[in-house]
Amino acid sequence: MYRSFQRLLVCLGAIAVSIAPRDAAAQMHVVVEADRVRIGATEYVPRFAILLPNSLIVPAGETVTLPPDSTYDAIEVAGTLRVSRTYDTTVRFTHLIVLPAGRLDVGTEADPVLRRVELIVRDVPIDTARDPFQWGNGLLNFGTQTRVGRRLSTTFVELADDAPGGAVSLTLAEAPAGWQVGDELLIPDTRQIGAVRNAPLLRESSVTIAAIAGNTITLSKALDFAHPSIRDPDGALVLRPRVANLTRNIVVRSESPAGARGHTANIGHEASWDIRYNQLIGLGRTRNEALDSTSADLTHLGLNQIGKYASHDHHAGSSLGTRQNIGNSYIDIGQGKWAHAVHGTHDTRIEQNVCVGFPGGCFVTEDGYEVRNVFRRNVAAYSAGNGRAAQRNVEDDCPGCEGSGFWFRGLQQVIEGNEAWNNAVGINLFSKLQKDGPVPAAPGAPSDQPFNENDAVPISFAGNVTLGNDRVGLEYWGMRPFPADDHVSAHNRGAQVWGAQLGGNNIWLRDVTLVDSGGRSDCIRSSAAYLDTIVVDGGSLRGCKNAISGGMASSSLIVRRVTMQNEINLRYTNPADPSWSLIDRVTFLPFGLRPKKYIIFGDGAVWTPGQPLDKFASESWKSHRGGQHKIIDFNGTGQDYVLLANQQNRDTAAFPTNVPGSLHSRFFVPEAGLTMGQAWDKYGMAYLGDVWATGQAFPLEGVIGGVGRPTLATPLGLPRAVLTVPNLLEPAVVTNGKTTLIILLTGDPLAASRDAIISIDGGPPIRLARKQGNLEDERKLDTTAVSVGIHSVLAWREGLNGQKIASSELRFQYRVESPPISVDPPVPAVVPQRHVLVDGVATGPEADVAGSPGPPSRGRRLVVDGGWKQGDGKT
User: Fold this and answer.
1) CA-CA distances (angstroms) from residue 318 to 95, 271, 737?
2) What is the C-alpha separation between 214 and 205, in angstroms, rounded?
3) Rounded-to-integer distance, Cα 676 and Cα 666, Å
4) Do residues 424 and 469 lie in contact, with contact meaning Cβ atoms separated by under 8 Å?
5) How many CB atoms lie within 10 A of CB 242?
6) What's the CATH code of the domain at 781?
7) 809: phi then psi, degrees, rounded to nearest 5
8) How far apart are CA 20 and CA 27, in angstroms?
9) Domain shared by 166 and 206, yes or no
10) Same domain, 165 and 226
11) Burial class of residue 839 (count of CB atoms within 10 Å of its CB; 0-12, 13-18, 19+)
12) pLDDT digits (tens, 9 = 90+) for 425-453
């Protein structure tokens, strides 16, 4: 029935066999040598079976069936190693290696194993002298492995109703075929996580199935706490509790999860696998802390070796339908970093799996250039993380340590129907700091196409659920626009959706359901300076403290066909954030007995000359194209409005360019003492690019700090070119014999060309087109007209026919004063010191300082005599 081969030296041991990849530069090169298997350019694993005394070697062309109970130091498979379908099998090993031509048969889809099988990695110290890269002590597949066990119709299912504390039975929404008495269950915590930071997540103590009758399960113990359904503030059902089955009849485990833990990996482009309905317990040696790997030259021995996870698809390239992980359960006690990591591997299926207890994360695309893998209907639970943010972890060589149920550094995947329960972060979309690597153009193709991280977005992101996670439900890091469809995020502690502190974020949610209880967290929260757009198209945002917080400072906001019922629905930090918005057919509902705060449009302040402008978004004077905040069918009334600030009233004071301390005063009016209406009439300039007169705009229910004008269009008037600085309010700034003229285009942009034409001191016309780096309506000129005295500038626009618009002509003046005479002090004979200015403190976000190519940003430091230096993010 079975044959044992002790220390059988087969021909493969004498001849080095090179498994040359079709595109060796891109895919993992595997070479079988006499004493080792080389993995890539530098790493290797010893062929332990020909080195250790108690070993099983399966030669090429041979088939060996494992006995019911066996123990080996090492197993090497060049032929076929199988388990019986007629008896239970337990095999203990320290090293199990399937060579490139070998096959491990522990059941197939056509011939599954229905008996119990245990593959146990023995608790034996790693032999780092022989195995410095620490690939041993586990199951390595360079060839083919199939491990297919007893099928379950579903691995997790919704309950039919609430599960009260003390309940001894559960009624499921469907009868779970394949579930059996004795199976272990996971029942996540559905309650709203409290506002106290780092309060522990609750988890049921061990519970199993005592009996099954149809869709009713009797439990082995009473529930420790209640698992209620999730409902919106009006009591409508959002989500019912879930229950997952953790038991499988094929078990791969470490003999001692607290000792020398094992790991499993599929390695190289020749590897294929079909792993279904397995239970992986206590596997994975890489810890959830900074990596410390063995150096290529072996001068340093790694103490936290990368790549030793419970399940690891390592540089396997792409193939057609031969890589699948379906219906498995991954269970840990909080020691292994990740459950299932896809690394440099493409076009695999990861479906219907359940993962619990891995501190770093459950399902991972490791480096960023993994493409077209399908993650569908997986569950990730209780990944606690290390309390730090994703970017900080990557920068500190601890990628994916933050405790994400799903950590997608590689984003071009199908991500559908997955659920993340009670982790630190539910689903993390991390679109920055990715590693380079070529990818296959199509399934089965060689990896020879360049990977562009800037274009990486999910192929499909639909029907996912993030529930009761400690920090965030769905987390974005520098994401390009893509639609997240039918996403449900509920009862997460910090925010249901978060746009993190990484530039270029775009959040686009379609038919979304975001629910909090009691206004404890935000529905959508983001870091204002790092967000480009927010689009919420369909769905509901209910029960939150803020429907959208922070992200209102994005460049654009669209909320369409959405129901909002929150303590505060839309809070514009100031009326210039975002730059423009569209609130289209949004239904605002009262939130219990709380005051109606449907839209907070700044604080409603009006500027008084002589006062600072710190309450106002002075950069909002950069464009003068009419009101940019539009409301369609306000709260079902059928009336459309432009939302305008109190400061935009014609009778308020306009901002002159000499207001002290304003970072953007060069965009203000070049004349003091004007009202907003006078500035609009004379220059086409006004705060937020529009004005309203009393009787033309009106208060709206639930709108605080602004008014609505029931006319969407704004008459923009005559095209003009306005010289804002320099002017007569302050002397011109002269640097290196030049001063910079800043000109804004105002008026109807469709009635003139996009150039400004000026004449300085009666000189010839100078045409100013937009230059790279200029704002859309900004034109600049460095001029040498800096002699002491008054200078005159005539500015005008041309029509679309190229002819001068005579009525657009405006005359401006600026003055240059005599520069002060200064004598340079003697230079002391001291060694120059490096001076550090943290975060460009008085420079402003657009100042050019010390030759910097761009603006200061959080975490950057200005080294005065050394340019920009990346900081630690704390300053």
Assistant:
1) 26, 10, 62
2) 25
3) 17
4) yes
5) 23
6) 2.60.40.10
7) -70, 130
8) 9
9) yes
10) yes
11) middle
12) 999 999 888 888 889 999 999 999 998 87
Is residue 222 included in any domain, yes or no? yes
Could you list the residue range(s) of the whole structural domain that residue 757 is in? 720-816
Kindly state whether residues 610 and 702 are assigned to the same domain. Answer: yes
State the average pLDDT over residues 183-195: 90
b or e along 369-397 (b: 16 or more beta carbons within 10 Å of the residue's beta carbon)? bbbbbbbbbbbbbbbbbbeebbbbbbbee
Instruction: Say yes or no: 841 and 749 in one domain.
Output: no
Same domain, 701 and 612: yes
For residues 300 and 250, is the Cβ–Cβ distance under 8 A? no
Dihedral in degrees, nearest 10, Cα atoms 611, 616, 622, 624: -100
Backbone φ and ψ for 268, nearest 5 degrees, come out as 90, 160
Query: Position 278: which residue type?
Result: N
- Residues 249, 115 contacting (CB under 8 angstroms): yes
- Give the Cα separation of 659 and 568 in Å (integer): 33
pLDDT (tens digit, 9 = 90+) per residue, 22-43?
Answer: 343 346 789 999 999 999 999 9
* DSSP structural state of residue 143: S
Is it the case that residue 196 has pLDDT exceeding 70?
no
- Per-residue pLDDT of 223-275, as tens digits, reads 999 999 999 999 999 999 999 999 999 999 999 999 999 999 999 999 999 99
Sheet holding 169-171: strands in order across? 156-158, 242-245, 184-186, 207-213, 216-219, 169-171
Residue 363, φ and ψ in degrees, nearest 5 = -120, 125
- For residue 430, the one-letter residue type is F
Query: Is 724 within a domain?
Result: yes
Sorted by sequence, the CB contacts under 8 Å of residue 299 that are 6+ apart come out as none
Q: Which of 355, 348, 398, 339 is nearest to 370 (CA)?
A: 348
* Alpha carbons within 13 A on the beta-carbon side of 656: 16
Q: What secondary structure does DSSP assign to 503-533, as a single string?
A: SSEEEEEEEEEEE-SSS-SEEEEE-GGGEEE
Which of 684, 709, 734 is the endpoint of a domain? Answer: 709
796 and 841 co-located in one domain: no
Residue finishing a domain among 654, 686, 709: 709
Per-residue H/E/C for 365-403: ECCCCCEEEEEECCEEECCCCCCCCHHHHHHCCCCCCCC
Please give the distance of CA 334 from its chain centroid, rounded to a whole number. Answer: 24
Exposed, middle or buried, 427 (CB in 10 Å: 0-12/13-18/19+)?
buried
Under 8 Å CB-to-CB from 827, ≥6 apart: which residues?
none
With 0.85 as the threshold, say if the pTM is over it: yes
> Which residues, at least 6 apart from 188, have a Cβ–Cβ distance to it below 8 Å?
203, 227, 241, 242, 244, 381, 421, 422, 467, 468
Residues 705 and 725 grouped into a single domain: no
Domain assignment of residue 481, yes or no: no
Angle at 30 between CA 25 and CA 32, to 5 degrees: 145
Which has the closest alpha carbon to 228: 200, 199, 191? 191
For residues 169 and 216, what is the distance between their CA atoms, to the nearest angstrom?
Answer: 7
Q: Are 855 and 757 in the same domain? A: no
Q: What is the pLDDT of residues 555-571, one digit of tens each?
A: 789 999 999 999 999 98
Total domain count, the chain: 4
**Is there a domain that residue 159 lies in?**
yes
